[in-house]
Design brief:
By secondary structure, this protein is an alpha/beta fold. The chain is 52% helix and 13% strand. The N and C termini lie far apart (59 Å).
């Protein structure tokens, strides 16, 4: 991410016209803003800002760069927001296996309710008393009864059962 370092800071200074105002806007120190903008200028080998004791002004190169880089910042913000929204809504396919009686009595009613709440999730359930090979079958989840054999798979006890 080194090539993005200083971009947010530069945009804030360019828009606010001040290191102090940019620092307040971003919730960072003035020294942090100054270091990152200076490092950006050094990486680009271009002076983006003219600094005086009273004000900060964009150079011509700084104006062009600010205009162009704001589009990239906006696109990155949209991509990040879109990803967050995509991850907040469950969607996709879940393939599970469970024993027949236990699956019919306990698991399928839960799956049914889950699918009603999350219509973008497809659940494919295989109810079988055979010990399915989870990797070969492409299963995401398996409900098993009894003691788990030594396995590299992750397991969690759901409940106890007595005869």
């Amino acid at each position: 991410m080194a090539r993005w370092d200083g971009i947010d800071e530069f945009i804030a200074v360019g828009e606010e016209g001040s290191f102090t105002a940019a620092a307040k806007m971003l919730g960072l120190s003035v020294a942090h803003i100054s270091r990152h903008v200076t490092a950006l200028e050094q990486r680009l080998n271009t002076q983006l800002l003219t600094r005086t004791t009273r004000k900060v002004v964009l150079t011509k190169e700084g104006e062009v760069y600010l205009h162009q880089i704001k589009h990239l910042q906006h696109a990155m913000d949209e991509a990040t927001q879109g990803l967050a929204q995509q991850q907040s809504t469950p969607k996709g396919k879940i393939k599970l296996t469970a024993p027949v009686m236990y699956g019919e009595s306990f698991i399928m009613p839960i799956v049914h309710n889950f699918m009603k709440e999350h219509p973008e999730v497809e659940v494919v359930a295989t109810l079988s008393n055979e010990q399915e090979n989870l990797l070969e079958g492409g299963f995401d989840l398996a409900i098993r009864l009894g003691h788990l054999k030594d396995s590299s798979l992750k397991a969690r006890r759901l409940s106890a059962r007595r005869f």
